[in-house]
Each structure stands twice: as C-alpha cells, then as structure tokens.
Design brief:
By secondary structure, the chain is α/β, with parallel strands linked by helices. The protein has 10 helices and 11 strands. It has 2 domains: 91 residues, 3-Layer(aba) Sandwich (Rossmann fold), CATH 3.40.50; 132 residues, 3-Layer(aba) Sandwich (Rossmann fold), CATH 3.40.50. The N and C termini lie far apart (56 Å).
Amino acid sequence: MTETILMRAEPLVSSMKNKISQDVVRLKGERKISPKLVALLIGNDPVSRTYVDLKTKDCEDVGILSEVADLSSLPREDAAGKVLERISKLNEDPSVNAVIPQMPFDQKVSEEQVFSALSPMKDVDGLTAFRLGKLIRKEYLLEDSILPCTPKGIMLLLKYYKVELSGADVAIIGRSILVSEPLRKLMQDADGTATCYHTHSKNLSSKIKEADIVVAASGRPPELYGSSGFRLTGEMVKQGCVVVGVGVRRDTQANKMLFDVDTKSMNGICSFLTPNTGGVGAMTRAVLVQNTVIAAKLQSQL
C-alpha cells in the first residue's frame, strides 16, 4: 500500500499571493500602475460563473482591480459582434492590463474569433496565437512568463511537491487547447514523455495503467455524458503513480459538482494526488493574478 500525499494548493497559493501583493505595491508606487483585470463572461456555464466570482475575490486579495463584463445574456444572433466590439474597446483601454474571456462560450462566438481579436499583451490566459507560439518555441520562463493558467498551475504545483517529471510517462486525458495541449508541451519541456488521449484513442485503459503520471482533463462526467463520459478511478492506475484532477462540471439538476477523479478510490494507490477542491482550480486562479501582474509589467516597459 502506497502512502498518498495530497497536493494541496493552499501553501503555494499563499506564498504566490504574498509575492504578487508586493509586486502590485511596487507597480503602484514606482510606476504609478494599478493592475486591472477584466473577465468576459460570454457563456452560461455555472462553473464559469463560480470561477469568475472566485477570481474577483483573488484580485481583491492582492490589490488588483477587477471587473466582470457579463455578456452571457446577449442573443445568439448578436453575440459575436458585441463580444468582439467589447474586446476591441478593452484592447484600447490603457487602464486595463489584462483580459480573460471565460470559457466555454456556448457557441455564441468561436474561440478563434475571440483570441484573434484579443491583444496578446492583454491575454493572461496565454491562448492567443502569439502566446501559444512562445510556448511552442520554448521562449518562456515557467514562473515569469504568461502561459495558459491551468497548465502552468499544474506544473508549479508538481514542482512544489517535488514530483519528478524527467523521464516520466504522462497520460493526459483530453486534448483541449485550454489545458491538455499546452500541458503536454510543458511536460515535454520538462523532459517527460506526455501524450494526450481522447475518445478515439486505442487501448486507453492499458495506456493509463502504464503511466507514471495521469492527468484527468476530460470534463465529461458519466452522469452527464453517459457511456461517452470519463471518470478516473483507483483500479485504472498503477501503484505509486501521480494523479492530477482537472475536469469539473456542475450537475444543475442534482445541484452538485462532478469531478474527473474519484479521489476516495485513489487512497493507498497514488503517491501524489490533487484534491478535487483546493487543488488545480486554486492554482489556476493564482496563476491568473500572477499573469495579470506580469502583463502589467510588460506593458509598463513599452
């Protein structure tokens, strides 16, 4: 039986927020800049609303100004034009340092339209072509560059808990541009061998069982997606592996959160495990405010 260490984000988040608060004080004092983040709420996903509220609180904690532009009630036929118009105004607003379009967009506007319109200088989710290009070309420093929030948060959490990535076989369940693909590249840059798996992958169960690190980022709970859903359980992974849970959905009818990982079944099997609350989600939010300060610093150098 393996001792399972929970990779709680709280101690690392606390340290990050202390440093960010100090950086904000210096920006305000030395450069007369008050960092400001605007969150664009486009879709009606209940988890997105929860995260936007939490992000607003995170900004308050470190002295960053924040604003929520709620565009979720726009009629579908008018949404794309209005969203792109708002992004254009935010790009030109010198008081705004950072913009995060909260995904998903409910098909009101495409991801390509949104991230093509957004200024890379204000993209703190790291999803514009410019920011992703920096990642692909390995033109970044993990802690000091703007990188996609969740992948960067996962990497920082693994580093904090001294999880060895060099030579590790990593199975990432999911292939999104938001999490899975950027994380695969970051893992690769850390000398891990990472592969993204999905619904059409062959022999998925055996590949998961062989992996040293498993990242569950499908966001497709069986309760909502039936036979095409996914949940990682203890019997699916090998003894001593590292498990990172990312995906989460809210079941509005049952009024409960549904996670990608059955953490109870992992006890005694995993060496390291992220908790479903206070783990990757908390790291994502901490990285967002960190990226906001990085963006403000970059803009002050122009």
